[in-house]
Design a protein that fits this description.
- There is one protein chain.
- The chain is built from two helices and two strands; from the N terminus they run αββα.
- The chain has helices at residues 2-11, 38-58; strands at 16-23, 29-35.
- Strands 1-2 form a two-stranded antiparallel ribbon.
- Helix 1 (2-11) packs antiparallel against helix 2.
- The longest helix is centred in the middle third of the chain and has 21 residues, at 38-58.
- It starts with a helix and ends in a 20-residue tail after the last helix.
């Protein structure tokens, strides 16, 4: 699947810490990427734009928006 191949491409970008790809029951999806810092995020924009465009075209999807947020805290349980 395209999103699996493109997930690897995103993870290979310098400064990428991780990616989440969420799929709702109504077939809407949400991708969340995590970056080392704002510089890494800024450096990823051209490649991320290209990957996003390819993925939406291959999956016959529409990008409704791209937003940036700062992670203030995070905690995962094992």
């Amino acid at each position: 699947m395209a999103f699996r191949r493109n997930r690897r491409r995103v993870l290979e970008l310098p400064g990428c810490k991780g990616i989440y790809y969420l799929l709702a029951k109504d077939n809407r999806s949400l991708g969340i990427t995590l970056w080392d810092d704002e510089s890494a995020l800024a450096g990823s924009r051209p490649a991320a734009d290209c990957i996003r465009a390819e993925t939406t075209q291959e999956q016959h999807m529409e990008t409704l928006g791209v937003e940036e947020f700062e992670v203030l805290t995070w905690e995962l349980r094992e």
